[in-house]
Amino acid sequence: MIKQAETLVSQLKAENVDSELRHQFSRVMEKISLNCSDDMVQFATRVIGESVSLLNMQPPCEFEAVAIGSIARGEATPYSDLEYLFLVDSDKKEAIQYFEDLAITNYFLIGNLGETKLSYMNVKQLGGWFSDAAKNGFKIDGLAAGAGNIPTGSKPQNRNHFIVTPEQLADRYKYILDNPDPSEALRGDLTSMLTYTRSLYLHRNHNKQNQNKQMSLLQRFNDLISPLVPNQDRKNMNMKMLNTDAKKFKFIPDHNLSIKGFNADVKKELYRFPSIILLDICIVSGCVSKTSWESLVNLLHKEKISQDLFESLQFLLAAASYIRLSAYLKHDSHDDRMSVAEKMTRKVNTQVKIQHVKSSQRWFIPCDLFSIICASMIPLKEYMANESLRTQDLMSFSSQSDSWWSHVTTLYYSGNYSRALSALKLKYEGLCDTPVESALQLASVLPHSSSKDTLDIVSGVLYMCSEYKPALQLYQYMTDNDIGNKYSQVADCHIRLGNYLKAIQMLTRKGEKSHGDYFSLGWAYMRLGNYKAAEISLIQALQIAYNNTSAEVLTDYYGNPLTTDANTENETVDLIGAPSPEQRLRMIHNISPEVISYLLGLGAVYRNQMHYSIAEEYYMRCLQFKYELYGEGAAVQSVAQTLNNLGVTYDNMGEYNKTIQCNKDS
Predict the structure, then answer these.
(1) H or E stretch including 103?
(2) Where do the domains of the chain lie?
(3) Alpha-carbon dihedral 295, 298, 302, 307, rounded to 10 degrees
(4) Burial of 646 (0-12, 13-18, 19+ CB in 10 A)
(5) pTM for the whole thing?
(6) What is the DSSP secondary structure assignment for residue 561, as one 8-state letter?
(7) Virtual CA dihedral for 320, 324, 329, 331, nearest 10 degrees?
(8) In the chain, at which end, N or C, are there fewer CB atoms within 10 A of the end residue's CB?
(9) Closest CA to 195 of 64, 294, 48, 80
(10) Which CATH number describes the domain made up of 529-666?
(11) For 155-193, how does the pLDDT look when each residue is reduced to its tens digit (9 = 90+)?
(12) CA proximity to 483, closest of 457, 514, 501, 462
């Protein structure tokens, strides 16, 4: 069935969204999610049953294992966590001890499947490589902070957190319903957590009569809470908490996507947003069915939400399920590594052994699918985050689809600049002739984009496609009208157009400078033949970039911590005060794309000053860093450019054989 979903995704086009195709895709993903949830229930039931057998004693009372979370909502994947609780018929000490033992036996059985990382179980003493020896697959919700939706809880003070009688759980439910925490998001509220429940395992007491007529513990709990109705204060609080939930999800792709890959928290921003918002709407509307999918249809039929809101939520829920499942199947693990765009991995301290993440380990979201997600997600997020939103307003939601613009921005974020420019020119033929007028006209008709964001993207597309004159006009307009501080961009465009003095004047007027500003200054000075000033500016750029690289938390492409020697600390290095260029080069160990670029610039300065042996050292170190940072073949064009610089240097040194070799390598 996943193949059917993949086929439908391949047919989705961002420029012309087919509503029927989206609906077919959503229905297929609904079936997949429900089937996965059913299979997970069967498997969890077997694990709990085997745990009862392993304890080799009769349970002291009737109990029922109850699923909560994604399994109960019908949104599970084969790698979903197991969130569950024990409803028990006795709270005597010996009974509770039995169920603690039963829960721990569950944990060990699941852990022995080999799909639970020890770090996930919060075993700090077993840190390092050993904690990641197992793949991340079927497991309990975990013992780390923020998890622990399991019978024994996650902290000592939460012991027996979910080993409770129906009456105890109902009392807890009622207390939180009547006394909500204003600082809590609705999704973290116990009443929300128990909105969806599903029985996993029921043990009856064989001494009781009329077993078939006896009410289950879950039924008993539901009967106890069904008369409970939120008061008006609670209803108002729920709406505020819905707004809070929406604000916590910051899904707005930024220009760093082409540099840093998918820069959002995938789990929170893509997976959870549609599910949580749907759950919140069900709660504030008092409209809950057996699963998320049924609740969504129920909301529409009871006229609680508009058709547009229904279609947006249905597609987002399906898209989140598809992306999550596809990534997990790609990695054969509960692994969130994915991207829309290629990215070069940052590496810090070349003297430390670091885990490398290869590009083949990454699952890529289809660009058109991501564009359509943007078109649905962004207006929905902004609508739900509105503090004046009321329950009745949910019928008025309209996405006012700007899918074409979402597609343009996605192309830009993912580094497809030429395609983005082509899409812009289709609607604005005179874009390059009248960039300011065209961009302002575009900004005036987009319902879900600010003028600044629109101008930023249009100017960025023009710049990245080497349309420097129209890009300069836009950047200058934004600077003159206080729409954004674009001194750096204006100066860079002047450099690209050969206006080096104007670039220097612009950057000199700017106050605090970034490493990019100093790099631009260095480049402009070098073009004017002022090599000493160029060297000073480039060293400033290198120092700032090096400090930034040293201060960053060491992460891989996806934001996961990299394994390093825990005893290694980054030292503060004074590159500006280095006694010589050669000494400065020996001081550099932390590398990033920026550090390499500034070393290349310094190499060019020394070559122009005819210090060829120093230039050779800088170029050779750049080659070494590039291969360490990107791996062979990962940055072919950039490596070729460096080899060309080396070839020119060797040619000036009379090293003709080395020049020929560099040309061959290029």
Answers:
(1) helix 93-111
(2) 2-363, 529-666
(3) 90
(4) buried
(5) 0.71
(6) B
(7) 150
(8) N
(9) 294
(10) 1.25.40
(11) 655 556 899 999 999 999 999 888 888 777 776 788 888
(12) 457
